[in-house]
Design a protein that fits this description.
Helices cover about 30% and strands about 20% of the residues. The chain is α/β, with parallel strands linked by helices. The chain has one domain: TIM Barrel, CATH 3.20.20.70. It has a 12-stranded mixed beta sheet. Helix 1 packs parallel to helix 2. The protein binds S-adenosylmethionine and iron/sulfur cluster.
Length: about 325
C-alpha cells in the first residue's frame, strides 16, 4: 500500500510543485524586481538532490510533479533531471510530469521534454503585443516565446496559456487572447495578481482585475458552461460552447479553495511550503544532506511538515490594501 501523506484536515497530498531555480531570463513586474539578488549556488539543491527529494515524495504517494521556478528551463542540466524523473512515469508511480515556463527556451527543449514523458506544459503569456510584452517582462521578447509555443505544439505537447489579469494592461486583450488560443486549440487560464514579494513601485491593489469581471465579460460574447472538474487547486473552469475551449480562473484572493488543497511546494533550496499564502516552511535540505545514505530522516521530516499544513491562507484585498501579504517572491516558491 502507498503510504499516503495525509494532513491534519484529512487532505491527501498528491501534488508537488518544485522550483528548480530562483533565476530567470525575464523580470516580470509582478514577480521580480529589476535588480534581483539570487541565491548562492551552494544553497541550491543539486540536480541529484532534487531527484532524491522528488523520488522521496513520489514514494510517499505524490502522483503529480510540476517543475517551475524562476524559469525552470534556464537551470543548467535540467533535461537530465526530467529524463531521470521519467523512470517514475514508467513505473506508474507518477501519473504526470509537467512544467510551468515562460516559454523562452521551449524551442530548444520541447522535443527533449516530450521524450522524457512530459505531455503538457503551461506557458505564461500576458499579452500578444510586442511592446506590452517587453514592458511587463522587462527582459523578454514576445516572438521568442511564440516560437517556443509553436515548437512545443509541433513536438506533441499540449500547451495551456496562463495570463496574469492586470487592470489597465491586458483588459483590452481578453477576446483577442481567447480567440488566439482557440485557433490553436489551447486552453487559457487567468490568474488574479497576488500580493507577493515587496510591493515596491508596483501597486498591486491598483493592478487587481478580478477574474469574476473576466467571466462576466466573456459571458457577453460566449455561452459559458461551468465544468465540475477541479485539480485540487484554486482554478475553476468553464467551457466556451462556441469554441469548445476551456477557460480557467485562478482566484486565490476571492475564493476559498483551500478545503480541497492537495499540494505543497518545494523551493530550490529544499524548503517545503505547506501553503502558498503562509510563511511557515520546513527545511528538508538538512535531513537530505546530513544523511546521504538513508532517506529515513527526510521521510520523517516530510511527515512532520505535512502535519503542520494549515487549513488555509490569509490573502485579503477587501480592505483595499494587500493584507496577508507574504514577503517572498513568487519566483521563490514557484507560483
Ligand atoms: N517562469 C515560469 C513562468 O513564468 O511561467 C515559472 C515560474 S512563475 C513564478 C509561475 C507563474 O506565476 C507564472 O504564470 C506567473 O505569471 C505567475 N506569477 C508570478 N508572480 C505573480 C503574482 N504576483 N501574482 C500572480 N501570479 C504571478
Ligand atoms: Fe520569470 Fe516567471 Fe517570474 Fe516572469 S513570472 S519573472 S518569467 S519566474
Amino acid at each position: 500500500m502507498t503510504p499516503h501523506l495525509i494532513d491534519p484536515f484529512a487532505r491527501a497530498i498528491t501534488y508537488l510543485r518544485v522550483s528548480v531555480t530562483d533565476r530567470c531570463d525575464f523580470r516580470c513586474v509582478y514577480c521580480m524586481s529589476e535588480n534581483m539578488t539570487f541565491l548562492p549556488k551552494k544553497d541550491l539543491l543539486t540536480l541529484e538532490e532534487l531527484d532524491r527529494m522528488c523520488s522521496a515524495f513520489i514514494g510517499l504517494g505524490v502522483e503529480k510533479l510540476r517543475i517551475t521556478g524562476g524559469e525552470p528551463l534556464v537551470r543548467k542540466g535540467i533535461m537530465a533531471f526530467f529524463r531521470s524523473m521519467s523512470r517514475h512515469l514508467d513505473s506508474g508511480a507518477l501519473k504526470e510530469l509537467t512544467l510551468t515556463t515562460n516559454g523562452s527556451q521551449l524551442a530548444r527543449f520541447a522535443a527533449d521534454l516530450y521524450a522524457a514523458g512530459v505531455r503538457r506544459v503551461n506557458v505564461s503569456l500576458d499579452t500578444l503585443d510586442d511592446d506590452k510584452f517587453a514592458r511587463v517582462t522587462r527582459w523578454g521578447r514576445l516572438q521568442q516565446v511564440l516560437g517556443g509555443i509553436e515548437a512545443a505544439r509541433n513536438a506533441g505537447l499540449r500547451v495551456k496559456i496562463n495570463a496574469v489579469a492586470l487592470k489597465g494592461f491586458n483588459e483590452d486583450e481578453l477576446l483577442t487572447l481567447t480567440e488566439w488560443c482557440a485557433r490553436d486549440d489551447m486552453d487559457l487560464t487567468w490568474i488574479e495578481v497576488m500580493p507577493m514579494g515587496d510591493l515596491g513601485n508596483e501597486d498591486r491593489v491598483g493592478q487587481y482585475w478580478p477574474v469574476s469581471d473576466i467571466r462576466a465579460q466573456l459571458s457577453g460574447r460566449y455561452t459559458l458552461t461551468d465544468l465540475p472538474e477541479s485539480t485540487g487547486g484554486p482554478a475553476r473552469y468553464v467551457r466556451l460552447e462556441e469554441s469548445g475551449q476551456k477557460i480557467g480562473f485562478i482566484t486565490p484572493l476571492t475564493h476559498n479553495f483551500c478545503e480541497s488543497c492537495n499540494r505543497v511546494r518545494l523551493t530550490c533550496t529544499g524548503e517545503l511550503y505547506m501553503c502558498l499564502g503562509q510563511e511557515d516552511q520546513a527545511d528538508l535540505r538538512k535531513p537530505l544532506r546530513d544523511f546521504p545514505d538513508t532517506d529515513a530522516p527526510l521521510v520523517s521530516a516530510i511527515h512532520k511538515a505535512i502535519g503542520r499544513k494549515p487549513k488555509g491562507h490569509d490573502f485579503d484585498y477587501s480592505r483595499q490594501k494587500a493584507d496577508g501579504q507574504v514577503s517572498r517572491h513568487m519566483s521563490h516558491t514557484g507560483g
